[in-house]
Amino acid sequence: MRQEIRLNAFDMNCVAHQSPGLWRHPRDRSGEYNRLGYWVELAAVLERGLFDGLFLADVLGVYDVYGQNADAALRNATQIPVNDPMLLVPAMAQATRHLGFGITCTLSYEPPFTFARRMSTLDHLTEGRIGWNIVTGYLDSAAKGLGRDRQNAHDDRYLIAEDYMEVVYKLWEGSWEEGAVLRDKERGIFTDPAKVHRVHHASQHHRLDAIHLAEPSLQRTPVLYQAGSSTKGRAFAGRHAECVFMSGPSPQVVAPRVQGVRQAAEEAGRDPASVLIFALATVIVAPTAAAAAAKHEEYRSYVSVEGALTLFSGWTGLDFSRYDPDQEIRYIDNDAGRSALENISRADPERVWTVREVAEHAGIGGIGPVIVGDPAGVADQLERWMELTGIDGFNLAYAVAPETFVDVVDLLVPELQKRGRYKQRYGEGTLREKLFPGGRRLLTPPHPAAGYRPFPASR
Ligand SMILES: Cc1cc2nc3c(=O)[nH]c(=O)nc-3n(C[C@H](O)[C@H](O)[C@H](O)COP(=O)(O)O)c2cc1C
């Protein structure tokens, strides 16, 4: 097969995730986000389309940067209301056999001890199909909900994250040896105590002296995803991430970031090609190019400009309600996400964005590209992105849910398969084994997690 194009679905346990206003579209069903049946149905669609995974974003706070209050976010359902992503997984896992689940959890507000157990539990219940999108948050409103005045400073968050990773690696990898669990009914020994070890950790941020509460799951450490692309974010990804999500409006913006992450992996002693990189995109596909263009126009008529600017204000930490719509956007450092603002300020020297242009662009699929066409036209564009950027695949957002995903599965996937660019069936094994063919279900050296497993892995 030519280089495979990998597909993930990008969603969140909320309404109209990256497409503010589109919840008003008559066929959009994202308003059913609080019903289990909606998610089970979506998981089945994605598995029919051989998607590698469903990636669920999560943010603990509310988007109250725009206008300095939560009114616009609430009016437009801009990622509020938002439910817990983890709790969706068991039902979707029960209805599928192969689909992976990349779950976003911030490490800024929960002790590693309880978090590690919840992830282990999900890895058990899904039989090794769990991934973790490691985030530190970007909204001060989240910090306030958790009893703090504001979030930690941008670069400090990555330092704290390093420490957190050490603790969870110790718990997942170093507490229970392979073979510790005997389930020996005859001798009456469930677990051999000699093979379970206490984890000690004492740092400025975390103290722990305990054994991990869960027995080892198939993957132990979930497949690690990461999405920050600032200098610190790239270095963190280079050390830890197995998969990286990126968002940028054009291949010109994304390509140097891809190179940066691969270089960071190399600097961390890892094979740069072993990190899978997915770019955010929204695909609007129909049997003919004209039908796809008409569908795009129709979708656009439901975009909420206020909702788009509310999202963008939260991502960048800048209150866009204060700017003239024709004002050009320039870069400034702050403690929200840095790559979001770079996307539309200094990442592409040939393109200067106004506030109005950002609002129009981000109305469907956030800051990623919207790729519109018949199946062949869309496939051509995806192939072009792959060539120009060196990514491994796409993280597909929706305009109208689940219609956007159904269209991709029914129309685009067969075209990619015909071109030898897409798998014909799933591989066997855990999410890690599926993503890295010939790979192993456990992390191996030189990944730092493997260094916390002081005993030989069975496989
Ligand atoms: C595609 C994509 C998805 C993201 N999803 C989340 C998310 O669900 N929750 C979150 O707190 N941050 C999310 N982020 C934000 C990143 O984790 C990170 O905080 C942000 O990109 C800023 O990091 P940077 O300054 O290193 O670029 C996402 C970023 C990207 C590009």
Automatic annotation (TrEMBL):
Transmembrane segments: none annotated. Residues 28-391 form the Luciferase-like domain. The keyword Flavoprotein applies. FMN binds at residues 58, 104, 154, 158, 229-230. Keywords: Flavoprotein, FMN, Monooxygenase, Oxidoreductase. SUPFAM superfamilies: Bacterial luciferase-like. GO terms for molecular function: monooxygenase activity; oxidoreductase activity, acting on paired donors, with incorporation or reduction of molecular oxygen. InterPro entries: Diverse_substr_monoxygenases, Luciferase-like_dom, Luciferase-like_sf, NTA_MOA. It holds the Pfam family Bac_luciferase. It comes from the Bacteria. PANTHER family: ALKANESULFONATE MONOOXYGENASE-RELATED, C2H2 FINGER DOMAIN TRANSCRIPTION FACTOR (EUROFUNG)-RELATED. Belongs to the NtaA/SnaA/DszA monooxygenase family. This is Alkanesulfonate monooxygenase. The lineage of its organism: Bacteria, Pseudomonadati, Pseudomonadota, Alphaproteobacteria, Geminicoccales.
